[in-house]
Amino acid sequence: MRKKWFIKTADDTLSELNTTRCGLSSETVTERQAEYGPNEIQEQEGKSALEMLLHQFKNPLIFILAVGALVSLFTGHYVDGIAITVIIVINALIAFWQEMKAKKGMDALKEMAAPNAEVVRDGEVLSIPARELVPGDILTINTGDILAADVRIIEANRLSIDEAALTGESEPVDKAIAALDGDNIGLGDQVNMGFMTTIVTSGNGYGVVVGTGMQTEVGHIADLMTNTEETKTPMQVRMDTIAHTLMIAALVVVAVVCAIGLYHGMPWLEILSTGISLSVAAIPEGLPTVVSIVLTMGSTKMVKSNALAKQLSAIETLGSTTVICSDKTGTLTQNQMQVMQAYDASGRQWKVTGKGFDPKGEFIPQDHNTAVTDSPEMMQGLTVATLCNDAQYLQDEGKYTVRGNPTEGALIVAAAKAGLQQGTMLASGDFTLIEKFPFDSGRKMASVIVRDKAGQHFLAVKGAPDVILRKASGFMADGNVVVHSSQEMRGNLALASSPAEQHIANYQKAIEEFADQALRTLAVGFRPLTDEDLERDHHELEHDITILGLYGIMDPPRPEVRDAINSCFDAGVRTVMITGDHALTAAAVARDIGIIRSDNDKVITGAQLDEMDDEELRRICPEVAVYARVSPEHKLRIVKAQQENNEVPAMTGDGVNDAPALRRADIGVAMGISGTSVAKDSGDLILLDDNFSTIVKAVRQGRQIFDNLRKFIRQALTANVGEVAVILIAFLVMGPATILPLTPLMILWINLVSDGLPALALGVEPEENDVMSRKPRKRNEGFFGDSLGVRIVIRGLALGGMSYLAFSWVLNAGHSAEYAQTVAFAMLIFSQLWHLFDSRSFTTLYRKNPFTNKYLLGAVALSATLSLAVIYTGFGQLVFNTESLSFGHLLAVVVAASVPTFVLSGIKEITKVKFV
């Protein structure tokens, strides 16, 4: 267990680490480097390229095909053996290429670490490689630094650190040195600690190194990533199920044939030849390749919607998703702090509109008709907020950005919406900044001495509303300072005789209303200064303030998020917020956008999760809408609990702290803009626009892809059942003297070209009307659900039976065996082409316009043309041993081939039974 350094005083920490503020001695450093090793993140040894390549041949489908290829070559069927071998190699190489794009999360973690560090050793400040740091080193901390280790802060001067990538906290954390009360404090609240890879945004100080390498918080996350099991996606499970089902079916059929052959005393070579034909017929050789192609087409479509799939299996998994665990900042919200509500000291409130940092927004008055430019309190308040501000408002190629503290940036943007900009105000000479007194956590305010163009000085002040009220002596109301009694303002504010009573009541009511909306509230005010005041310290100046107003600030939800969450709700997909932010803020946002829909939806904090065991968490999971102030372990536990409840969770994230959960989830969704490289490498899908609504679009496309895969699998396996059926029927009816209706090479052609090529067009079939109104599929539901397996068998037997009847009829009419095989070959091809039009829908072909998928029409035409070339060209006849059919026979085949599809579809249309 890692030590809880945050509960120790700075001196106790130094003492326990046996160090001083002058740093370690050279001898001690050498000893500790030997004890603790280098300050580096360790990574697990991965599989070699050869191991990954060999792993691809463990697929049971590949195994069966490999046996078929060997037997074909052994028995002299060289063309068949070579063709099957080529298919095996193609499938294996495609899978190998996908796996070569493996995650490199550990490399990304190592890249985030600082290359160098500045330390105090032997009383001197030295710059050393960060990997040489040891516990007990005294690390100097300056603005812009990336912390090279975990430290206990021992000295802080207005020190703020951006810990968003580690904790999910959207704003920099102000650091302090005092020991904290309580030992169950989350990372985001450990204000006297600094963590490896976090960035110093302002101030400076010193810290004593308490953890290096794998003993840091980032090292702990790396360890979680290493030990986090990557679960198979539902898509991978379904494909494995199909593979095992087909393998068992093929073995059963081959076993039956061998038994019959042995019973009749057939030669082994004939039994083997029949077995090869059946094994080739039973296995859809192109299935892995075609599925990859269909998923690739889906991936290309998703990219146009700003979703980049790193793993093809993740695309279909989206369609199975039952719960989306979403980060708040930047995904559900805009990641741009904005003033949402304003209050002027006259008691008027304003709603501030606009999007992001764009200055086109406006102040809309509530319950009054005053324009913002006609409110002296609001205009003066915005002026003060702009002057007492270190953020910069920038414009580049028409795009507005803010550099500096996000809260200060929100004030600058609000002022710009009222026509005020700091640069213009200072450049014009209207105001001159004389001296700044930056914000610190002790006094909870900031101020600046300003000189106006008349030469008068005043103190511009902003800070926490309760602090400003305690230091105030009046309010600016209707252009005048209406209350100016320091005693009244600082004393009993509830005095009925106090003229400040109504203003104070209004002020406090506004604070409460802003708090209810989870707005971060700042107050602004000013104090006129005399020449004597200019010589005083800021502690003496920051009182007798005249309050101008309040500003309620937050990172607002993205405008499109509410509709996206409602779409998820209609589709049976729950949205859960998992954030490092405070519970009150998270709950307010969740309630606003529809994640919290009733009083039964719970909000759970990381501290509460620590009190729960895994079973209790699993039980309560379905009732929780928001998890706040959570750690990487918490996120991982939440994902596991949902999976144990048979949920299919999608997890979004952008920080280092999200990586283990992204890796564990059925589908990890990383942010493409704000996401760290660690998060991107751990995720399966990357949002190129960091927008939650993009996930919903991807869910829709995932469901459509799953539907189309089911249509393709239905078509492909129906063809395989038909091929097995025609051979098996012939073997059973005709006995040992069987002339097989199809050769292995004919079957390969049907599987790969005449059936596989048109079936590919099912991958671009338009979505079904109810794609987003259905409930998600169950985690363990396979491709054969909803009676699809039975339908495949019935349709396949019908197609195979029709092909055998045609074969037997022609053979009994005195035609050659090659001619009869060609008829059976053509019958099966055209039967499958007709069946394609019924496979387009989960209803029947009578309810679907046959011309809405032009790719399918083109593929059917191409397949028919190529197949006729195999029958009628000399080269095709040489390779496939076919003969040219008479026009009458060809016409009869084409018409008869349509009978199974039209008759069975008609029965289904009339009876409404699903299995036909």
What does this structure look like?
- One of its GO terms (cellular component) is plasma membrane.
- Belongs to the cation transport ATPase (P-type) (TC 3.A.3) family. Type IIA subfamily.
- The chain crosses the membrane at residues 57-75, 81-97, 242-263, 275-295, 717-740, 746-764, 784-807, 819-836, 856-875, 887-907.
- This protein has 916 residues and is α+β, with helices and mostly antiparallel strands.
- It is built from 35 helices and 27 strands.
- Strand 18 (472-477) and strand 19 (480-481) form a beta hairpin.
- The protein is elongated.
- Residues 101-107 and 484-497 have low confidence and may be disordered.
Distance from N terminus to C terminus (CA atoms, Å) equals: 61 Å
Please describe the biggest sheet, giving its number of strands, its sense, and whether it closes into a barrel.
10 strands, mixed
Helix tally equals 35
Structural class: alpha+beta
Unreliable residue stretches: 101-107, 484-497
CATH architecture descriptor text of the largest domain: Up-down Bundle
Helix fraction by DSSP (H/I, runs of at least 4): 40-55%
| Percentage of β-strand residues | 15-25%
CATH T-level topology of the largest domain = Calcium-transporting ATPase, transmembrane domain
Report the C-alpha radius of gyration, rounded.
36 Å
Looking at CATH, the homologous superfamily of the largest domain is Calcium-transporting ATPase, transmembrane domain
| Count of DSSP strands | 27
- Counted up, domains total 3
The shape, in one word, is elongated
Give the mean pLDDT: 85
Q: Which CATH first-tier class of the largest domain would you pick?
A: Mainly Alpha
Membrane topology: Multi-pass membrane protein
Organism: Photobacterium indicum
Keywords: ATP-binding, Cell membrane, Membrane, Nucleotide-binding, Translocase, Transmembrane, Transmembrane helix
GO biological process, one term: intracellular sodium ion homeostasis
